[in-house]
Amino acid sequence: MFYLRIGVVLPNTTPTRNDGLRYGVELPEATEGVMGRKRGLIAGAVGTALLVGAAVRGVVRRFAIVEASMEPTLSSGDWVFARRTTGGIERGDIVIFDDPTVKGRQLVKRVIGMPWERVGIDGGRVTINGALLADRWAHGTNSPEGEWQVPGDHVWVLGDNRVGSMADSRTIGPVPLNTVNWVVVARYWPSSRAGRIA
Questions:
Q1: Domain boundary residue among 36, 56, 76?
Q2: Does residue 18 surpass a pLDDT of 50?
Q3: Which residues contact 136 (CB under 8 A, 6 or more apart)?
Q4: Which of 109, 143, 165, 191 does the annotation list as catalytic?
Q5: In the list 109, 144, 180, 189, which could disulfide-bond 157, CB 3.0-4.6 Å?
Q6: Over the chain, what is the mean pLDDT?
Q7: What pLDDT score was predicted for residue 95?
Q8: pLDDT tens digits, residue range 176-197?
Q9: Judgement on whether residues 45 and 80 belong to the same structural domain of the protein
Q10: Is 144 helix (H, G, I), strand (E, B) or coil?
Q11: CA distance readout (Å), 141 to 42, 114, 154, 170, 175
Q12: How many domains are contained in the chain?
């Protein structure tokens, strides 16, 4: 059994209490006074913050949504957390990638087509290799109609707001996987809409 005290894991201890501030292990009576306890608490807090920062650094990032191409899933003014793409990307993931048309700008879209697949739009419906996609994310009409082959090192993306999404694979083509850096996992602002993104 483990107990946590100010960011330090103490193995094989049982909870005891010898004053109003200490839990987890039997500690000797403090002789250094209030200032010593404050220094200990501050050092523990700083240590914990450093550990958390090191664990999260480069793995999670926050982004502001500034346009409406992913409505109603993501709206302008939303703030989201995204994780670095360290593993595979799946159909349905909301990804953030480098805009191939404007240097330094990033776009947020949903992955629809995977490498080597043939994506089609026929009668306003999305097909993958000729089979109808259960496209529960679409809001609005899918157009223009056509068929696109996704190269082996690319994905095909669309905005959920199909009418309002101007820069997706219908216009910019398949997106190279090496430019897809982040997968959106949760919205944290506004707090009334906070939660995991599916």
A1: 56
A2: no
A3: none
A4: 109
A5: 109
A6: 76
A7: 94
A8: 999 998 999 988 888 888 888 8
A9: no
A10: coil
A11: 56, 21, 24, 13, 22
A12: 2
